Amino acid sequence: MDALSQTEIVDERKGRLKSLERTGVESIGFLGLIAGLTRSPLPQDFNLYGRFSIVQSPLKYDDLIAREFPPLPIPADMRRPLDVTRPVASSFRNRELEWRRSHVETLRSLENQWVVLEGEQVVAHGENPVQVINEAKSKGVRTPYIFFVEQKTENVVTMGL
Amino acid sequence: MVLVNYLHEFNYREFQEGQSPVLQLQVFHPDNSENKIDVDVYLDSGTQRSLFNGFIIASLGITLINGKIQRYSTTAGNVIEAYLHRVRLTLPDVGDFNLEIGFSSNTIRRNLLGRDFFNLAQIGFRENRLKYYLTPSP
């Protein structure tokens, strides 16, 4: 009796597994795989039970094996630019700018004046910009670079107007 | 997301008053390319129309008051009187820009390049790097 009961238990497990094969539950795995790989919606006339017959369909086993798909194309408007070039730094009046940066003390003595600078040389300076330009031109500077030396004041910030 | 490719990079200029987004550019007489002057200009998006010192136009040999009068209202409520003149601005390495600019009848400390210029060039500020980027607008 005991042996019979044990046999029945074993048979019950086998029977359940056989039942799974019969109902095609295993093929749901294939079905999910197919749906996932194709990324296409299931057809409207999709018949679950019909698909169970996949086991008997002409599909070969190799067709159902997951394989690597080529990458999906990326829409043009989502592509990042690949031809990025670094912006070019301007070199215009670099000598004068460097001089201004490195001669703070000299410029302090020229505060509230207009200055024409050519290279590292102060060509002309004064309170009247027109006179300063004319003086620079009279010294042979064809294109004067003129700027105003603002007074450095603590606790004051600048603004446009 | 909007991506802008900038062609030119500028460091903020370090002057007495601190570091600022300043350009060095050439102002040309509109009809005489031999007549020009190099100046500092501050990029100022708060300025509706560029405002330069009146002596600049005078140094190009143009009579200041021949231009159409234009008044500028400052943030303090003052009014600055200026005259409009069309000039050519050249940013060496970048390009030329034709602009009708107000030239002040009184001396001002800073030349301001305002939104009329911003209409001709795309500018991006990177304040925490003390840099700005510029590319002529299409």
Provide an overview of this structure.
The complex is a heterodimer of chains A (161) and B (138). Chain A has 161 residues and is α+β, with helices and mostly antiparallel strands. Chain A is 40% helix and 11% strand. Chain A is built from 6 helices and 4 strands, in the order αααβααββαβ. Chain A has a 3-stranded antiparallel β-sheet with strand order 3-2-4. The radius of gyration of chain A is 43 Å and the shape is rod-shaped. Residues 1-5, 17-40 and 45-55 of chain A have low confidence and may be disordered. The two termini of chain B are 19 Å apart. Chain B has 2 helices and 12 strands. Chain B has one domain (22-120): Cathepsin D, subunit A, domain 1, CATH 2.40.70.10. With 138 residues, chain B is mostly beta strands. The longest helix of chain B is centred in the middle third of the chain and has 6 residues, at 54-59. Chain B is globular and about 45 Å long. Classes of the chains: A alpha+beta (161), B mainly beta (138). The interface between A and B is large, with 39 and 47 residues.
Content of β-strand of chain B: over 45%
Structural class of chain B: mainly beta
What is the mean pLDDT of chain B? 93
Number of helices of chain A: 6
| Range of helix content of chain B | under 10%
User: Can you count the helices of chain B?
Assistant: 2
Largest sheet of chain B: 7 strands, mixed
Overall number of structural domains of chain B? 1
How many angstroms separate the termini of chain B?
A: 19 Å
Largest sheet of chain A: 3 strands, antiparallel
CATH superfamily of chain B: Acid Proteases
Number of domains of chain A: 2
The class by helix and strand makeup of chain A works out as: alpha+beta
State the strand order across the main sheet of chain A: 3-2-4
Q: How much strand content do the residues of chain A show?
A: 5-15%
Give the overall shape of chain B, derived from the CA principal axes: globular
